[in-house]
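Nucleolar complex-associated protein 3 N-terminal domain-containing protein: structure, please.
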Amino acid sequence: MDNSTIEQSVHILNSCDDTATKASKASENDPTEEEASGAADKSIVKLTKAERRAKLKKSKKEAKKQGKEAEPKVKQTPQEAVLAEVKEDLTAEEAFESKKNKLGELGIALLADPTSNTKSLKEILQICKDNNQAIVKLGLLSLLAVFKDLIPGYRIRLPTEKELK
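Here you go.
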């Protein structure tokens, strides 16, 4: 290959590159610019307005995602670590109080109308399966109190012949 052939090849590549750049800019900005330039290739697909918006939205989302990944993680100071631990303790205390109140409400509902609130027994049993031993004890004591009040009102007897059929 001689230098003139190489120069021609480079010139052709540059002109194709310029045409593709103009066409992509024209399709992003305004469709009338592409028609006015006349240099755009007809094989290039024009994006609709909705597709351009979606593409822009996607690129912004990816840039934001990359920005979050690039953020350096800040080490916690001892004060922040203690503060996080205190918040965790407070939420644990709030959860304990919440479960305690729930046990009380369920027990009262059961005592008020045992036949329509039988689901409350299941809920109390679910609370009794908690990992916190204090909650388990309170749940079992609540069940004991409920059963102690309910059982004397119900008579235990053998089923009749009619009930057996």
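Notes: Residues 20-28, 30-40 have pLDDT under 50 and may be disordered.
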